Amino acid sequence: MRALMALLLLAVLLISSCAPAPVPVATGSMDQQTPAVVQRTLVFFTGVETPSYADKALQIVPNPRAQGKELLNARLALRDERGLSRPFLAEALPELNTDTWKMSPDGTMETAFRLAANLTWHDGQPLTSDDFVFAWLVYATPAFGVSSTGGIRYVKEVTAPDPRSIIIRWKQPYPDAVDDSAALPPLPRHILEQPFLNMQPDAFMTLPFWTDEYVGAGPWRLTHRSPASFFEASAFDGFVFGRPKIDRVRVVYIPDSNVSVASMLAGDVHFSFNNMLYGDEGLVLESGWGPNGSGRVLWEPLQGRGMEFQMRPEYAVPTQVATDTRVRQAINYLIDKQMLWETITSGKGVLREVYTHPDVDYYDVIAKAAPIRYRYDARRAEQLLTEAGFARRSDGSWLTPSGDRFTFEQWYLTSASNDRESQILVDGLRQFGIDATSHLFGIQRTSNEERYTSPGLFGGAVFNPRYRIDEAARPENRWTGANRWGYVNADIDRFSGLWDTTLDRSQRIQALAQMERIANEDVPVIPLYFTANVIAHAAGLRNVVQNFNPDAGQERRMWEWYWAA
After folding, report:
1. Which terminus of the chain, N or C, has fewer Cβ atoms within 10 Å?
2. Cβ within 8 Å of residue 426, ≥6 positions away
3. pTM of the model
4. pLDDT tens by residue, 252-299
Protein backbone atom coordinates (compact mmCIF):
# COMPACT_ATOMS: atom_id res chain seq x y z
CA MET A 1 0.00 0.00 0.00
CA ARG A 2 2.86 2.38 0.89
CA ALA A 3 4.55 1.59 -2.45
CA LEU A 4 1.28 2.45 -4.17
CA MET A 5 1.13 5.70 -2.23
CA ALA A 6 4.69 6.56 -3.28
CA LEU A 7 3.83 5.99 -6.94
CA LEU A 8 0.76 8.20 -6.61
CA LEU A 9 2.82 10.90 -4.94
CA LEU A 10 5.40 10.77 -7.75
CA ALA A 11 2.65 11.11 -10.36
CA VAL A 12 0.92 14.02 -8.70
CA LEU A 13 4.22 15.80 -8.03
CA LEU A 14 4.98 15.62 -11.74
CA ILE A 15 1.60 17.19 -12.43
CA SER A 16 1.97 19.82 -9.72
CA SER A 17 5.44 20.82 -10.99
CA CYS A 18 3.66 22.62 -13.80
CA ALA A 19 1.48 24.62 -11.38
CA PRO A 20 1.90 28.33 -10.65
CA ALA A 21 4.23 29.46 -7.87
CA PRO A 22 2.86 28.53 -4.43
CA VAL A 23 0.87 31.01 -2.37
CA PRO A 24 2.37 31.69 1.11
CA VAL A 25 1.01 29.33 3.77
CA ALA A 26 -2.07 30.34 5.77
CA THR A 27 -1.35 31.66 9.24
CA GLY A 28 -4.33 29.93 10.83
CA SER A 29 -7.80 28.52 10.21
CA MET A 30 -9.45 31.66 11.62
CA ASP A 31 -7.07 34.42 10.51
CA GLN A 32 -8.45 37.73 11.75
CA GLN A 33 -6.45 39.96 9.39
CA THR A 34 -8.33 42.50 7.30
CA PRO A 35 -9.19 40.71 4.03
CA ALA A 36 -7.09 41.83 1.11
CA VAL A 37 -8.93 42.87 -2.04
CA VAL A 38 -8.19 39.72 -4.05
CA GLN A 39 -10.78 38.18 -6.34
CA ARG A 40 -10.33 34.72 -7.75
CA THR A 41 -12.87 32.00 -8.52
CA LEU A 42 -12.93 29.48 -5.68
CA VAL A 43 -13.09 25.95 -7.11
CA PHE A 44 -14.56 23.16 -4.98
CA PHE A 45 -14.64 19.52 -6.00
CA THR A 46 -17.11 16.82 -5.13
CA GLY A 47 -17.41 13.19 -6.22
CA VAL A 48 -20.70 13.21 -8.12
CA GLU A 49 -23.36 15.67 -9.18
CA THR A 50 -26.36 16.00 -6.92
CA PRO A 51 -29.64 15.33 -8.78
CA SER A 52 -31.31 18.22 -6.93
CA TYR A 53 -29.88 21.43 -5.44
CA ALA A 54 -32.73 21.66 -2.95
CA ASP A 55 -31.66 21.51 0.69
CA LYS A 56 -34.27 18.80 1.29
CA ALA A 57 -34.46 16.88 -1.98
CA LEU A 58 -37.65 15.01 -2.88
CA GLN A 59 -37.55 11.25 -3.50
CA ILE A 60 -33.75 11.17 -3.38
CA VAL A 61 -31.58 9.18 -0.99
CA PRO A 62 -28.60 11.44 -0.18
CA ASN A 63 -25.30 10.37 -1.69
CA PRO A 64 -22.44 11.35 0.67
CA ARG A 65 -20.24 12.10 -2.35
CA ALA A 66 -22.73 14.64 -3.73
CA GLN A 67 -21.86 17.90 -1.97
CA GLY A 68 -22.22 21.61 -2.57
CA LYS A 69 -25.82 22.39 -1.67
CA GLU A 70 -24.71 24.55 1.24
CA LEU A 71 -23.37 27.10 -1.24
CA LEU A 72 -26.89 27.76 -2.54
CA ASN A 73 -29.12 27.26 0.50
CA ALA A 74 -29.96 28.64 3.94
CA ARG A 75 -32.10 27.28 6.79
CA LEU A 76 -33.65 28.58 9.98
CA ALA A 77 -30.60 27.38 11.94
CA LEU A 78 -27.15 25.95 11.30
CA ARG A 79 -24.71 23.82 13.27
CA ASP A 80 -21.35 25.40 14.03
CA GLU A 81 -17.98 23.60 14.19
CA ARG A 82 -18.76 22.42 17.75
CA GLY A 83 -22.15 21.03 16.74
CA LEU A 84 -24.07 23.84 18.46
CA SER A 85 -27.14 25.34 16.83
CA ARG A 86 -26.91 28.98 15.73
CA PRO A 87 -29.44 31.30 14.08
CA PHE A 88 -29.25 31.36 10.28
CA LEU A 89 -32.36 32.77 8.60
CA ALA A 90 -33.94 33.05 12.04
CA GLU A 91 -33.28 36.17 14.09
CA ALA A 92 -32.99 34.01 17.23
CA LEU A 93 -33.68 30.39 18.19
CA PRO A 94 -36.56 29.16 20.38
CA GLU A 95 -35.80 28.48 24.05
CA LEU A 96 -37.57 25.72 25.98
CA ASN A 97 -40.15 26.76 28.58
CA THR A 98 -40.58 30.22 27.10
CA ASP A 99 -43.20 31.66 24.74
CA THR A 100 -40.98 30.55 21.85
CA TRP A 101 -40.96 26.85 22.83
CA LYS A 102 -43.80 25.52 24.93
CA MET A 103 -45.67 22.32 25.68
CA SER A 104 -49.46 22.01 25.62
CA PRO A 105 -51.59 20.02 28.10
CA ASP A 106 -52.63 17.65 25.31
CA GLY A 107 -48.99 16.57 24.76
CA THR A 108 -48.40 18.63 21.63
CA MET A 109 -45.65 21.21 21.31
CA GLU A 110 -45.13 24.59 19.67
CA THR A 111 -42.01 26.44 18.53
CA ALA A 112 -41.94 30.02 17.30
CA PHE A 113 -39.29 31.51 15.01
CA ARG A 114 -38.79 35.13 14.02
CA LEU A 115 -37.09 35.59 10.66
CA ALA A 116 -34.29 38.09 10.18
CA ALA A 117 -35.36 41.31 8.51
CA ASN A 118 -35.41 41.91 4.75
CA LEU A 119 -34.69 38.36 3.60
CA THR A 120 -34.85 37.70 -0.14
CA TRP A 121 -34.51 34.80 -2.53
CA HIS A 122 -31.79 34.74 -5.16
CA ASP A 123 -34.23 36.20 -7.71
CA GLY A 124 -34.84 39.23 -5.49
CA GLN A 125 -38.31 38.23 -4.29
CA PRO A 126 -39.01 38.52 -0.54
CA LEU A 127 -38.41 35.39 1.56
CA THR A 128 -41.21 35.27 4.14
CA SER A 129 -42.80 32.91 6.60
CA ASP A 130 -45.27 31.85 3.87
CA ASP A 131 -42.35 30.09 2.14
CA PHE A 132 -41.97 27.84 5.19
CA VAL A 133 -45.70 27.12 5.30
CA PHE A 134 -45.57 26.15 1.64
CA ALA A 135 -42.45 24.03 2.18
CA TRP A 136 -44.23 22.05 4.89
CA LEU A 137 -47.14 21.33 2.51
CA VAL A 138 -44.64 19.95 -0.01
CA TYR A 139 -42.54 17.91 2.43
CA ALA A 140 -45.64 16.48 4.14
CA THR A 141 -46.92 15.06 0.83
CA PRO A 142 -46.32 11.26 1.03
CA ALA A 143 -45.79 10.93 -2.73
CA PHE A 144 -42.52 12.88 -2.45
CA GLY A 145 -40.97 10.29 -0.14
CA VAL A 146 -39.80 12.53 2.73
CA SER A 147 -42.93 12.92 4.88
CA SER A 148 -41.92 10.10 7.27
CA THR A 149 -38.25 11.03 7.60
CA GLY A 150 -36.54 13.13 10.26
CA GLY A 151 -38.42 15.74 12.23
CA ILE A 152 -40.88 16.54 9.45
CA ARG A 153 -42.93 13.47 10.41
CA TYR A 154 -43.74 15.08 13.77
CA VAL A 155 -44.95 18.40 12.37
CA LYS A 156 -48.70 18.85 12.72
CA GLU A 157 -49.04 22.32 11.23
CA VAL A 158 -47.03 25.35 10.16
CA THR A 159 -48.61 28.81 10.22
CA ALA A 160 -47.48 32.35 9.43
CA PRO A 161 -49.09 34.99 11.69
CA ASP A 162 -47.14 37.66 9.80
CA PRO A 163 -44.42 37.76 7.10
CA ARG A 164 -41.59 37.25 9.62
CA SER A 165 -43.22 34.90 12.16
CA ILE A 166 -43.32 31.10 11.86
CA ILE A 167 -45.28 28.89 14.24
CA ILE A 168 -44.54 25.17 14.05
CA ARG A 169 -47.00 22.96 15.89
CA TRP A 170 -45.72 19.48 16.64
CA LYS A 171 -47.80 16.33 17.13
CA GLN A 172 -45.73 15.42 20.19
CA PRO A 173 -42.62 16.56 22.06
CA TYR A 174 -39.58 16.70 19.80
CA PRO A 175 -36.32 17.57 21.58
CA ASP A 176 -34.49 18.23 18.31
CA ALA A 177 -37.04 20.82 17.18
CA VAL A 178 -34.30 23.45 16.98
CA ASP A 179 -31.24 21.29 16.34
CA ASP A 180 -32.88 19.47 13.40
CA SER A 181 -32.13 22.32 11.02
CA ALA A 182 -32.90 20.13 8.00
CA ALA A 183 -36.49 19.43 9.07
CA LEU A 184 -38.05 22.48 7.42
CA PRO A 185 -35.88 24.39 4.94
CA PRO A 186 -37.86 26.94 2.91
CA LEU A 187 -39.05 26.64 -0.68
CA PRO A 188 -39.90 29.64 -2.92
CA ARG A 189 -43.67 29.72 -2.94
CA HIS A 190 -43.81 32.32 -5.71
CA ILE A 191 -42.11 29.86 -8.09
CA LEU A 192 -43.41 26.45 -7.01
CA GLU A 193 -46.93 26.93 -5.67
CA GLN A 194 -48.78 26.75 -8.99
CA PRO A 195 -46.81 23.73 -10.28
CA PHE A 196 -47.39 22.03 -6.92
CA LEU A 197 -51.14 22.59 -7.17
CA ASN A 198 -51.46 21.73 -10.86
CA MET A 199 -48.95 18.94 -11.50
CA GLN A 200 -48.75 15.27 -10.70
CA PRO A 201 -45.95 14.42 -8.22
CA ASP A 202 -43.64 12.86 -10.82
CA ALA A 203 -43.87 15.93 -13.04
CA PHE A 204 -43.35 18.30 -10.11
CA MET A 205 -40.17 16.48 -9.05
CA THR A 206 -38.67 16.78 -12.54
CA LEU A 207 -39.12 20.53 -12.92
CA PRO A 208 -35.99 22.34 -14.14
CA PHE A 209 -36.26 24.41 -10.96
CA TRP A 210 -34.47 21.68 -8.96
CA THR A 211 -31.35 21.93 -11.14
CA ASP A 212 -30.83 24.42 -13.99
CA GLU A 213 -33.26 27.04 -12.67
CA TYR A 214 -32.66 26.65 -8.96
CA VAL A 215 -33.40 29.61 -6.69
CA GLY A 216 -32.22 29.44 -3.09
CA ALA A 217 -31.25 31.83 -0.31
CA GLY A 218 -27.66 30.78 0.38
CA PRO A 219 -24.45 32.82 0.13
CA TRP A 220 -24.06 32.24 -3.61
CA ARG A 221 -26.69 32.07 -6.37
CA LEU A 222 -26.62 29.64 -9.28
CA THR A 223 -25.47 31.24 -12.55
CA HIS A 224 -24.54 28.30 -14.78
CA ARG A 225 -24.82 24.53 -14.76
CA SER A 226 -23.05 22.09 -17.05
CA PRO A 227 -24.67 18.69 -16.36
CA ALA A 228 -22.29 16.01 -15.09
CA SER A 229 -19.42 18.51 -15.21
CA PHE A 230 -19.77 21.56 -12.92
CA PHE A 231 -21.94 24.39 -11.69
CA GLU A 232 -21.02 28.02 -11.06
CA ALA A 233 -22.47 30.57 -8.68
CA SER A 234 -21.91 34.24 -7.85
CA ALA A 235 -21.98 36.09 -4.53
CA PHE A 236 -25.51 36.97 -3.38
CA ASP A 237 -25.90 40.58 -2.27
CA GLY A 238 -29.03 39.76 -0.26
CA PHE A 239 -27.50 36.93 1.81
CA VAL A 240 -28.60 37.08 5.45
CA PHE A 241 -25.04 37.63 6.74
CA GLY A 242 -24.06 40.01 3.95
CA ARG A 243 -22.42 39.51 0.59
CA PRO A 244 -19.73 36.78 0.71
CA LYS A 245 -16.13 37.98 0.46
CA ILE A 246 -15.46 35.70 -2.54
CA ASP A 247 -17.35 36.75 -5.68
CA ARG A 248 -17.47 33.52 -7.68
CA VAL A 249 -17.41 29.81 -6.89
CA ARG A 250 -17.37 26.72 -9.07
CA VAL A 251 -18.12 23.12 -8.05
CA VAL A 252 -16.56 20.46 -10.30
CA TYR A 253 -17.31 16.73 -10.24
CA ILE A 254 -14.26 14.44 -9.97
CA PRO A 255 -15.22 10.82 -9.18
CA ASP A 256 -11.61 9.56 -9.19
CA SER A 257 -9.79 10.47 -5.96
CA ASN A 258 -6.37 10.16 -7.65
CA VAL A 259 -7.39 12.78 -10.20
CA SER A 260 -8.75 15.03 -7.47
CA VAL A 261 -5.50 14.82 -5.48
CA ALA A 262 -3.48 15.66 -8.59
CA SER A 263 -5.84 18.57 -9.33
CA MET A 264 -5.39 19.98 -5.84
CA LEU A 265 -1.59 19.74 -6.02
CA ALA A 266 -1.66 21.42 -9.42
CA GLY A 267 -3.75 24.26 -8.02
CA ASP A 268 -6.70 23.58 -10.33
CA VAL A 269 -9.08 23.07 -7.40
CA HIS A 270 -8.91 24.77 -4.02
CA PHE A 271 -11.19 22.97 -1.56
CA SER A 272 -12.31 19.38 -0.97
CA PHE A 273 -15.79 18.86 0.43
CA ASN A 274 -16.55 16.44 3.25
CA ASN A 275 -16.52 12.71 2.27
CA MET A 276 -14.20 13.23 -0.70
CA LEU A 277 -10.69 12.38 0.54
CA TYR A 278 -9.39 10.11 3.28
CA GLY A 279 -6.23 8.61 4.82
CA ASP A 280 -3.60 7.99 2.13
CA GLU A 281 -4.92 10.80 -0.03
CA GLY A 282 -4.42 13.26 2.81
CA LEU A 283 -0.87 12.00 3.37
CA VAL A 284 -0.09 12.43 -0.33
CA LEU A 285 -1.34 16.01 -0.21
CA GLU A 286 0.69 16.79 2.92
CA SER A 287 3.82 15.34 1.33
CA GLY A 288 3.23 17.07 -1.98
CA TRP A 289 2.60 20.48 -0.42
CA GLY A 290 5.20 20.24 2.33
CA PRO A 291 5.09 22.22 5.58
CA ASN A 292 5.25 25.62 3.83
CA GLY A 293 3.58 24.73 0.57
CA SER A 294 0.49 25.90 -1.26
CA GLY A 295 -2.05 23.83 0.62
CA ARG A 296 -3.21 22.66 4.00
CA VAL A 297 -4.87 19.43 5.25
CA LEU A 298 -7.36 19.35 8.13
CA TRP A 299 -8.00 15.88 9.62
CA GLU A 300 -11.55 15.39 10.93
CA PRO A 301 -12.24 11.86 12.31
CA LEU A 302 -16.00 12.39 12.51
CA GLN A 303 -17.58 10.34 9.71
CA GLY A 304 -19.08 7.11 11.07
CA ARG A 305 -18.30 4.20 8.75
CA GLY A 306 -20.06 0.85 8.99
CA MET A 307 -21.40 -2.16 7.12
CA GLU A 308 -25.17 -2.75 7.03
CA PHE A 309 -26.71 -6.19 6.51
CA GLN A 310 -29.65 -6.89 4.22
CA MET A 311 -32.24 -7.61 6.92
CA ARG A 312 -35.18 -8.62 4.72
CA PRO A 313 -35.30 -12.46 4.65
CA GLU A 314 -36.82 -12.49 1.17
CA TYR A 315 -33.73 -10.75 -0.23
CA ALA A 316 -30.93 -11.97 2.05
CA VAL A 317 -28.50 -14.61 0.72
CA PRO A 318 -28.24 -16.88 2.54
CA THR A 319 -31.55 -16.29 4.32
CA GLN A 320 -29.91 -16.92 7.70
CA VAL A 321 -28.03 -13.61 7.40
CA ALA A 322 -31.34 -11.88 8.10
CA THR A 323 -32.92 -14.47 10.40
CA ASP A 324 -30.09 -15.72 12.63
CA THR A 325 -28.13 -13.30 14.83
CA ARG A 326 -25.30 -15.82 15.13
CA VAL A 327 -24.49 -15.53 11.42
CA ARG A 328 -24.20 -11.75 11.61
CA GLN A 329 -22.09 -12.01 14.76
CA ALA A 330 -19.79 -14.52 13.04
CA ILE A 331 -19.22 -12.18 10.09
CA ASN A 332 -18.55 -9.37 12.55
CA TYR A 333 -15.81 -11.46 14.21
CA LEU A 334 -14.25 -12.11 10.78
CA ILE A 335 -13.66 -8.44 9.96
CA ASP A 336 -10.25 -7.19 11.04
CA LYS A 337 -11.27 -3.68 12.08
CA GLN A 338 -7.80 -2.83 13.33
CA MET A 339 -6.34 -3.52 9.87
CA LEU A 340 -9.11 -1.55 8.18
CA TRP A 341 -8.61 1.40 10.51
CA GLU A 342 -4.85 1.48 9.98
CA THR A 343 -5.09 0.98 6.20
CA ILE A 344 -8.02 3.19 5.29
CA THR A 345 -7.53 6.05 7.75
CA SER A 346 -3.70 5.84 7.93
CA GLY A 347 -4.10 5.95 11.69
CA LYS A 348 -5.80 9.35 11.49
CA GLY A 349 -9.30 8.01 12.17
CA VAL A 350 -10.85 6.54 15.32
CA LEU A 351 -11.53 2.83 15.81
CA ARG A 352 -15.22 2.25 16.40
CA GLU A 353 -16.72 -0.21 18.89
CA VAL A 354 -20.29 1.16 18.90
CA TYR A 355 -22.25 3.74 16.92
CA THR A 356 -21.60 6.67 19.27
CA HIS A 357 -18.48 8.80 18.81
CA PRO A 358 -16.00 8.36 21.73
CA ASP A 359 -15.57 12.13 22.17
CA VAL A 360 -19.15 12.78 23.32
CA ASP A 361 -19.59 13.38 27.04
CA TYR A 362 -21.92 10.39 27.54
CA TYR A 363 -19.78 7.79 25.74
CA ASP A 364 -19.03 5.80 28.93
CA VAL A 365 -22.76 5.23 29.45
CA ILE A 366 -23.07 3.84 25.92
CA ALA A 367 -19.94 1.67 26.12
CA LYS A 368 -21.13 0.10 29.38
CA ALA A 369 -24.55 -0.71 27.91
CA ALA A 370 -23.03 -2.36 24.79
CA PRO A 371 -20.22 -4.55 26.19
CA ILE A 372 -19.53 -7.00 23.33
CA ARG A 373 -16.28 -6.20 21.52
CA TYR A 374 -16.06 -7.86 18.12
CA ARG A 375 -12.29 -8.16 17.74
CA TYR A 376 -11.07 -10.49 14.98
CA ASP A 377 -11.66 -14.07 16.18
CA ALA A 378 -11.91 -16.83 13.53
CA ARG A 379 -12.49 -19.53 16.17
CA ARG A 380 -15.48 -17.72 17.62
CA ALA A 381 -16.86 -17.17 14.11
CA GLU A 382 -16.53 -20.89 13.33
CA GLN A 383 -18.28 -21.79 16.57
CA LEU A 384 -21.20 -19.45 15.85
CA LEU A 385 -21.67 -20.66 12.27
CA THR A 386 -21.59 -24.29 13.38
CA GLU A 387 -24.22 -23.56 16.03
CA ALA A 388 -26.35 -21.93 13.30
CA GLY A 389 -26.29 -25.15 11.22
CA PHE A 390 -23.53 -24.24 8.75
CA ALA A 391 -20.94 -26.91 7.93
CA ARG A 392 -17.32 -26.68 6.90
CA ARG A 393 -16.15 -28.95 4.08
CA SER A 394 -12.77 -30.66 3.87
CA ASP A 395 -11.49 -27.98 1.44
CA GLY A 396 -12.25 -25.25 4.01
CA SER A 397 -15.34 -23.84 2.30
CA TRP A 398 -18.68 -23.48 4.03
CA LEU A 399 -22.14 -24.83 3.29
CA THR A 400 -25.41 -23.28 4.45
CA PRO A 401 -27.95 -25.31 6.48
CA SER A 402 -29.68 -26.15 3.19
CA GLY A 403 -26.45 -27.54 1.71
CA ASP A 404 -25.71 -24.66 -0.65
CA ARG A 405 -22.32 -23.00 -0.94
CA PHE A 406 -22.07 -20.03 1.43
CA THR A 407 -21.91 -17.08 -0.98
CA PHE A 408 -21.89 -13.49 0.22
CA GLU A 409 -21.88 -10.09 -1.53
CA GLN A 410 -20.30 -6.85 -0.32
CA TRP A 411 -21.38 -3.56 -1.91
CA TYR A 412 -19.84 -0.08 -1.84
CA LEU A 413 -19.86 3.32 -3.52
CA THR A 414 -16.92 4.17 -5.73
CA SER A 415 -13.80 5.71 -4.15
CA ALA A 416 -10.21 4.61 -3.73
CA SER A 417 -10.59 4.07 0.02
CA ASN A 418 -13.88 2.17 -0.35
CA ASP A 419 -12.26 -0.05 -2.97
CA ARG A 420 -9.37 -0.93 -0.63
CA GLU A 421 -11.79 -1.46 2.25
CA SER A 422 -13.88 -3.87 0.19
CA GLN A 423 -10.80 -5.80 -0.93
CA ILE A 424 -9.58 -6.26 2.65
CA LEU A 425 -13.00 -7.29 3.91
CA VAL A 426 -13.75 -9.72 1.07
CA ASP A 427 -10.26 -11.27 1.17
CA GLY A 428 -10.69 -11.96 4.87
CA LEU A 429 -14.04 -13.71 4.35
CA ARG A 430 -12.65 -15.75 1.46
CA GLN A 431 -9.64 -16.86 3.50
CA PHE A 432 -12.09 -18.16 6.09
CA GLY A 433 -13.92 -20.16 3.41
CA ILE A 434 -16.90 -17.94 2.60
CA ASP A 435 -17.37 -17.34 -1.15
CA ALA A 436 -17.42 -13.54 -0.83
CA THR A 437 -17.48 -11.12 -3.76
CA SER A 438 -17.17 -7.36 -4.11
CA HIS A 439 -19.68 -5.20 -6.02
CA LEU A 440 -19.97 -1.54 -6.94
CA PHE A 441 -23.17 0.46 -6.64
CA GLY A 442 -23.88 2.64 -9.63
CA ILE A 443 -22.66 -0.01 -12.08
CA GLN A 444 -24.31 -3.36 -11.31
CA ARG A 445 -27.20 -1.74 -9.43
CA THR A 446 -28.36 1.84 -9.85
CA SER A 447 -31.95 2.50 -8.70
CA ASN A 448 -33.00 2.71 -5.05
CA GLU A 449 -35.13 -0.42 -5.42
CA GLU A 450 -32.25 -2.39 -6.94
CA ARG A 451 -29.92 -1.28 -4.17
CA TYR A 452 -32.20 -1.92 -1.22
CA THR A 453 -33.34 -5.33 -2.40
CA SER A 454 -29.78 -6.58 -3.00
CA PRO A 455 -28.37 -9.31 -0.76
CA GLY A 456 -25.24 -8.92 1.30
CA LEU A 457 -23.35 -6.30 3.28
CA PHE A 458 -23.38 -2.59 2.40
CA GLY A 459 -20.64 -0.09 3.20
CA GLY A 460 -21.65 3.44 4.02
CA ALA A 461 -21.94 6.27 6.51
CA VAL A 462 -23.72 4.95 9.61
CA PHE A 463 -24.30 7.32 12.52
CA ASN A 464 -26.84 5.82 14.92
CA PRO A 465 -28.89 2.70 15.72
CA ARG A 466 -32.29 4.37 15.45
CA TYR A 467 -33.76 1.95 12.90
CA ARG A 468 -37.44 2.81 12.89
CA ILE A 469 -39.94 0.40 11.37
CA ASP A 470 -41.93 3.26 9.80
CA GLU A 471 -38.77 4.48 8.04
CA ALA A 472 -38.06 1.19 6.26
CA ALA A 473 -37.49 1.66 2.53
CA ARG A 474 -40.38 0.09 0.60
CA PRO A 475 -42.45 0.63 -2.56
CA GLU A 476 -44.92 2.88 -0.74
CA ASN A 477 -42.23 5.51 -0.04
CA ARG A 478 -40.44 4.92 -3.36
CA TRP A 479 -37.62 3.08 -1.57
CA THR A 480 -36.42 6.26 0.13
CA GLY A 481 -36.80 5.33 3.80
CA ALA A 482 -33.86 6.00 6.14
CA ASN A 483 -34.05 2.37 7.35
CA ARG A 484 -32.64 1.28 4.02
CA TRP A 485 -32.25 -2.48 4.48
CA GLY A 486 -35.36 -3.14 6.50
CA TYR A 487 -34.19 -3.92 10.04
CA VAL A 488 -37.22 -4.51 12.28
CA ASN A 489 -36.98 -4.60 16.06
CA ALA A 490 -39.91 -3.52 18.23
CA ASP A 491 -37.65 -2.60 21.15
CA ILE A 492 -35.42 -0.45 18.96
CA ASP A 493 -38.56 1.24 17.67
CA ARG A 494 -39.78 1.89 21.22
CA PHE A 495 -36.49 3.35 22.43
CA SER A 496 -36.16 5.35 19.23
CA GLY A 497 -39.57 6.84 19.97
CA LEU A 498 -38.36 7.81 23.46
CA TRP A 499 -35.24 9.38 21.98
CA ASP A 500 -37.39 11.41 19.59
CA THR A 501 -39.94 12.59 22.15
CA THR A 502 -38.19 12.87 25.55
CA LEU A 503 -37.04 16.37 26.39
CA ASP A 504 -34.97 15.31 29.42
CA ARG A 505 -31.36 14.80 28.23
CA SER A 506 -30.43 12.05 30.72
CA GLN A 507 -33.49 10.03 29.74
CA ARG A 508 -32.61 10.44 26.07
CA ILE A 509 -29.10 9.14 26.73
CA GLN A 510 -30.52 6.09 28.49
CA ALA A 511 -32.82 5.42 25.54
CA LEU A 512 -29.84 5.66 23.19
CA ALA A 513 -27.85 3.32 25.44
CA GLN A 514 -30.60 0.70 25.18
CA MET A 515 -30.64 1.00 21.38
CA GLU A 516 -26.87 0.56 21.36
CA ARG A 517 -27.22 -2.53 23.57
CA ILE A 518 -29.73 -4.16 21.21
CA ALA A 519 -27.70 -3.31 18.12
CA ASN A 520 -24.52 -4.56 19.81
CA GLU A 521 -26.14 -7.96 20.37
CA ASP A 522 -28.29 -8.23 17.24
CA VAL A 523 -25.75 -6.74 14.76
CA PRO A 524 -27.89 -5.21 11.99
CA VAL A 525 -24.78 -3.14 11.32
CA ILE A 526 -21.05 -3.65 11.86
CA PRO A 527 -19.50 -0.38 13.15
CA LEU A 528 -15.97 -0.08 11.72
CA TYR A 529 -14.29 3.26 12.42
CA PHE A 530 -14.74 6.99 12.28
CA THR A 531 -13.15 8.00 9.02
CA ALA A 532 -10.56 10.74 9.08
CA ASN A 533 -12.17 13.04 6.54
CA VAL A 534 -9.58 15.10 4.74
CA ILE A 535 -10.60 18.72 4.38
CA ALA A 536 -7.91 20.09 2.07
CA HIS A 537 -7.68 23.68 0.87
CA ALA A 538 -5.34 26.09 -0.84
CA ALA A 539 -3.13 27.89 1.67
CA GLY A 540 -4.18 31.26 0.29
CA LEU A 541 -7.79 30.57 1.27
CA ARG A 542 -8.28 32.13 4.69
CA ASN A 543 -10.79 31.74 7.54
CA VAL A 544 -11.50 28.05 6.75
CA VAL A 545 -13.11 26.52 9.84
CA GLN A 546 -12.27 23.03 11.08
CA ASN A 547 -15.09 20.86 12.49
CA PHE A 548 -14.62 19.19 15.88
CA ASN A 549 -17.92 17.40 16.44
CA PRO A 550 -19.88 14.74 14.49
CA ASP A 551 -22.96 16.99 14.65
CA ALA A 552 -21.18 19.95 13.06
CA GLY A 553 -22.62 21.38 9.87
CA GLN A 554 -20.77 21.82 6.59
CA GLU A 555 -21.36 25.54 6.10
CA ARG A 556 -18.02 26.35 7.84
CA ARG A 557 -18.91 30.05 7.56
CA MET A 558 -17.87 29.98 3.92
CA TRP A 559 -19.21 33.50 3.40
CA GLU A 560 -16.35 34.74 5.63
CA TRP A 561 -13.60 33.08 3.58
CA TYR A 562 -11.33 35.25 1.48
CA TRP A 563 -8.24 35.03 -0.68
CA ALA A 564 -5.03 36.34 0.83
CA ALA A 565 -2.94 38.70 -1.27
Report:
1. C
2. 410, 436, 437, 438
3. 0.80
4. 999 888 999 999 999 999 999 988 888 889 999 999 999 889 999 999
